[in-house]
Amino acid sequence: MATSTTKVTYYNGFMWHSLLLPSGTRAVWPSRLDGGPVPGAATRYYRKAPRVRRAEQRQAELALVRS
Questions:
Q1: Which of 54, 31, 17 is nearest to 9 (CA)?
Q2: Which residues contact 35 (CB under 8 A, 6 or more apart)?
Q3: Cα 67 from Cα 64, distance rounded (Å)
Q4: Confidence band for 1, pLDDT divided at 50, 70 and 90
Q5: Is the Cβ–Cβ distance between 30 and 39 less than 8 Å?
Q6: Which pTM was predicted?
Q7: DSSP readout, 3-64?
C-alpha cells in the first residue's frame, strides 16, 4: 500500500483523521463523532517541514541571543 494508516484524534467534538501520503504530505479531515460528514468541511493538506541544517539552526539561535 502506498499510504500510511489513518490516525484518528478527537478534538472539539469532532474526529480528525490524519493520513500521511507517500510524498510526505499529511491530509487531515474532520468527521462527526457518529461517523457522519461535517457540512462545509474540507480536507486540508500540510507539507512536511523542511529539514534545517545544523549550522543554519545555530546561526538562528545566535541571532536571537544577540538581539
A1: 17
A2: 15
A3: 5
A4: very low
A5: no
A6: 0.56
A7: SPPPEEEEETTEEEEEEE-TTS-EEEEEEETTSPBPTT---EEEPPPPPPPHHHHHHHHHHH
